[in-house]
Amino acid sequence: MQSNRNNSLEPISMFNWRWGYFLDETxxxxxxxEPKPYPIDKDFLFRESRFGSTSNPKKVILQTWGxxxxxIRQARCACLKAGEITSxxxxxxxxxxxxxxxxxxADFVTLPNGHLIALDLQPALKDDMIHNQYALGKLKSxxxxxxxxxxxxxxxxxxxxxxxxxxxLWSRIPLGEDGDQLINQVIxxxxxxxxxxxxxLVSNAKTISPERSSKLLNGQKKYMRYRAEKDxxxxxxxxxxxxxxxxxxxxxxxxxxx
Length: 258
Hints:
globular
């Protein structure tokens, strides 16, 4: 199979990919911002491999969608499907540092033992009250509403907590009908609420001083370095696509602000 996509903004087509709704909603929401393709080499726009036994090989496909706008440095989504075993959507929206905005992050993963759901507006400056005003009031209310309808995702590692907001939506939900119901009735509207809230912030964002812009850039780089170093998908990607390609993908595409 070959991809006909010539740039990162062109639609992704993956048969029976679990998380298609969420990328579709993201693409539609960004149309008002006059998006342009984010530069991504063809080797990373589409990648296919095989895994499993020689007698019963399985196909894995990874495609990458991306864009940029006046206020968004990079919005990109890694979309992976490995047979019936794994479906992954890793979406990160990174604002330009001239605006006092958080990251938007959604990491939805289907594994043989269930779905992992992570959704947040992640701060570049965790202890900066001005930067974190977004996490107060309305977003906390949005989080409380949807988190109350979901099982817990368990404790967050201590070193990771500085990279999440108080409105971090985190859950582990089962496969099957119960999980499908939670995705349709809770995860979909929760995602829409978080994304719409974030894009309202983007629409209203004003440029900040050069001094504050520099401080924000340092925070963004720290966040990106952490994500690149600790990416939990590294082992899986290495198994599917090899070490060299995986390291280039993680450091040059997924978390490229080093």
